[in-house]
Amino acid sequence: MATLLHIDTSVFPEGGSASRAVTAAFRKTWEEQHPDGTVIYRDLGTDPLPHLDGVAASAAFSDPATHSPEQQTAFALRTGLAEELERADAILIGAPMYNFTIPSTLKAWLDQVIIMGRTSGAEPSAKGTPVTVVASRGGSYAPGTPREDFEYVQNYLEAVLGGGLGLEVDFIVPELTMAPVNEAMADLIPKYEASRDKALEDASAKAKALVDRFTA
Question: Where does FMN bind (predicted)?
Answer without folding.
Answer: 10, 17-19, 97-100, 136-139
